[in-house]
């Protein structure tokens, strides 16, 4: 490629920023479903219907996304869920 045909820095492709992160709660054989629902209501402020649906998603699908946003906040959410005894991870949205 000749120097004249090379894109200028302003024209160079820029890697698109990631869409963010999400916190995922995974099913475990220890916690009662009612407890998991209570955690969702208490920590995330979910209404009982939403918390029940998320809990059932964890129970049936083995996982559910419970929050999404910036990485630092998702790490805080996962740590808080660990403190409640739940298994949670964060994942980058792509």
Automatic annotation (TrEMBL):
Region (Disordered): 1-23
Key words of the record: Hydrolase, Protease
Biological process, per Gene Ontology: protein catabolic process; proteolysis
GO molecular function: peptidase activity
Domain Adaptor protein ClpS core per the UniProt entry, residue ranges: 19-89
Positions with biased composition (Low complexity): 1-19
Gene3D superfamilies per the UniProt record, alphabetical: 3.30.1390.10
Subunit structure of this chain's protein: Binds to the N-terminal domain of the chaperone ClpA.
Role this protein plays: Involved in the modulation of the specificity of the ClpAP-mediated ATP-dependent protein degradation.
HAMAP family according to UniProt: ClpS
Family as reported in the entry's similarity comment: Belongs to the ClpS family.
Protein name: ATP-dependent Clp protease adapter protein ClpS
